[in-house]
């Protein structure tokens, strides 16, 4: 039972973080480097959305995916897909915002690359190498947010045992039943997973703290 | 460059995890039915106890979405669930009128009881009906926790206030807006009275140290709590489950559930 909940947690949180980083990091880079109309407005929106309440994101995704909603034909409400969508919506602004503020001195880096005449794919690889630590922070931030989120995934996932029940929603469920010791145990597991993730990422990347 | 190698490794690892998890995501049972259910009968563990036998025999899987009756109806009405289990008949009559269900099956019942602080139990000794008990709570301005959440229990509570000719807006009236279990915890902490179904209360009783039953009466119509199952006509296969809920096998499971968790007859099969 517990194993199932843990697997479901990973199956929801890892892809949502991955997708969020895939969208958020380029979006942050774009907002930082490119100059275009409404740029400041867009950045303000990203700031606002980074504080989007999970229950609101959950509600929006619910309405979107309900069979009576615009994407109802997909028939994915109360599945892990719906949970991933809700989490991506929550995490993308956070990752974007972090990337935006993490790309310090990017102008000088770009200037150097121009000087060395590095173009195309190589240019982006070089930038990613230069900011690999920042990207790692973004991943850690996304993972932490997705693994601790509960309001949104509860609404769109439905907390179905063996399917959409993840650690956080299982904790809520145990509290509902008054089983506080079970809830606490699940909380400890959640922390342990979070710790493992961060350790793994640090081993892959080298220490996050200097 | 060392850094580059790490990045490559990381990318490969992430790609692998992504593929692995998404293939897992796509995996699903051959026949899965979503059933929106009221919290009380699910949280007590009852549904998880009686359905596996049916699931195994018919090679189907039920996914229960446990929410308040009001929300369960909404989920079902939107077509996001194939079946529904609730204990508020008026909701089902509405669904029937809208032709969203053909009918419904009453399958199990228990009773609503009034619980409250142990030390106030004696005050209710001479009470002859639940509305009288409610009136007494109002008269003394005792604390009373109401779920106030469009659930079947809340609807029943309002019915009783009506019978007692009392407006539930006195000082001690606390609106929790939460499910049965959380509301019971709240009543326990606050030393308040609360209307609850027997099953949830007895399942949690060892954690509700300050609460005890202050009034119960199986003969009062307003305290009878019947659970119904209904399904969308588009999912005709679910008629099998409706039939199962009337079977001898189901009846036996109900008695073993009672024996295992309550040591007395809490859930009663509806004939």
From TrEMBL, chain A:
Pfam families per the UniProt record, alphabetical: BPD_transp_1
Q: What is its main location?
A: membrane
Q: Which NCBIfam families match?
A: ABC_perm1 (NF038017)
* Cellular compartments annotated: Cell membrane; Membrane
Family the entry assigns: Belongs to the binding-protein-dependent transport system permease family.
Q: How does it sit in the membrane?
A: Multi-pass membrane protein
A single GO CC term for this protein reads: plasma membrane
Q: Which residues cross the membrane?
A: 6-30, 42-65, 77-100, 183-204
GO process annotations (BP): transmembrane transport
What InterPro entries does the annotation carry?
ABC_perm_TupB-like, MetI-like, MetI-like_sf
Q: What protein does this entry describe?
A: Binding-protein-dependent transport systems inner membrane component
- Ranges for domain ABC transmembrane type-1 come to 6-201
Keywords (alphabetical) are: Membrane, Transmembrane, Transmembrane helix, Transport
UniProtKB/TrEMBL annotation, chain B:
Q: Coiled-coil ranges per the record?
A: none
One Pfam family this sequence matches = PBP_like_2
InterPro entries for the chain: ABC-Tungstate_binding (IPR052738), PBP_domain (IPR024370)
PBP domain location is: 34-249
What PANTHER family does UniProt report for this protein, alphabetically? EXTRACELLULAR TUNGSTATE BINDING PROTEIN
Q: What is this protein called?
A: Extracellular solute-binding protein family 1
Native source organism of the sequence = Caldicellulosiruptor hydrothermalis (strain DSM 18901 / VKM B-2411 / 108)
What taxonomic ancestry is recorded?
A: Bacteria, Bacillati, Bacillota, Bacillota incertae sedis, Caldicellulosiruptorales
């Amino acid at each position: 039972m517990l194993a199932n909940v843990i697997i479901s947690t990973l199956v929801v949180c890892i892809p949502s973080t991955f997708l969020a980083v895939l969208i958020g990091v380029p979006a942050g880079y774009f907002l930082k480097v490119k100059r275009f109309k409404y740029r400041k407005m867009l950045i303000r929106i990203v700031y606002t959305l980074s504080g989007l309440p999970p229950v609101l994101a959950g509600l929006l995704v619910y309405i979107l995916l309900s069979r009576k909603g615009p994407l109802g034909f997909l028939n994915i409400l109360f599945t892990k897909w719906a949970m991933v969508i809700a989490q991506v919506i929550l995490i993308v602004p956070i990752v974007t915002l972090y990337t935006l503020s993490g790309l310090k001195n990017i102008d000088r880096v770009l200037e150097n690359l121009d000087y060395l005449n590095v173009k195309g794919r190589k240019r982006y690889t070089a930038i990613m190498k230069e900011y690999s630590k920042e990207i790692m922070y973004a991943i850690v931030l996304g993972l932490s947010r997705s693994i601790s989120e509960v309001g949104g995934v509860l609404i769109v996932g439905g907390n179905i045992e063996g399917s959409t029940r993840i650690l956080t929603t299982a904790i809520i469920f145990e509290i509902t039943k008054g089983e506080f010791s079970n809830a606490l145990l699940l909380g400890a597991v959640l922390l342990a997973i979070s710790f493992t993730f961060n350790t793994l990422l640090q081993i892959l990347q080298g220490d996050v703290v200097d | 460059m060392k850094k580059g190698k790490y990045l490559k490794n990381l990318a490969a690892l992430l790609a692998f995890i992504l593929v692995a998890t998404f293939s897992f995501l796509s995996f699903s049972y051959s026949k899965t039915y979503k059933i929106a259910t009221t919290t009380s009968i699910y949280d007590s563990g009852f549904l998880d106890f009686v359905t596996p036998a049916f699931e195994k025999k018919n090679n189907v899987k039920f996914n229960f979405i446990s929410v308040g009756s009001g929300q369960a109806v909404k989920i079902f009405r939107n077509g996001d669930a194939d079946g529904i289990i609730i204990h508020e008949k008026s909701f089902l009559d509405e669904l029937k009128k809208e032709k969203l269900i053909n009918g419904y099956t009453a399958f199990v019942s228990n009773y609503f009881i009034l619980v409250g602080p142990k030390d106030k139990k004696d005050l209710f000794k001479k009470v002859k009906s639940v509305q009288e008990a409610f009136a007494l709570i109002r008269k003394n301005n005792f604390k009373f926790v109401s779920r106030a959440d469009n659930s079947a229990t809340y609807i029943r509570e309002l019915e009783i206030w009506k019978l007692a000719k009392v407006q539930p807006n006195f000082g001690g009236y606390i609106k929790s807006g939460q499910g049965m279990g959380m509301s019971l915890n709240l009543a326990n902490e606050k030393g308040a009275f609360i209307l609850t179904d027997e099953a949830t209360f007895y399942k949690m009783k060892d954690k509700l140290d300050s609460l005890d039953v202050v009034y119960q009466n199986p003969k009062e119509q307003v305290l009878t709590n019947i659970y119904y199952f209904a399904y969308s006509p588009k999912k005709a296969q679910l008629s099998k489950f409706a039939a199962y809920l009337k079977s001898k096998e189901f009846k036996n499971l109900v008695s073993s559930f009672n024996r295992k968790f309550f040591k007395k007859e809490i859930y009663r099969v509806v004939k």
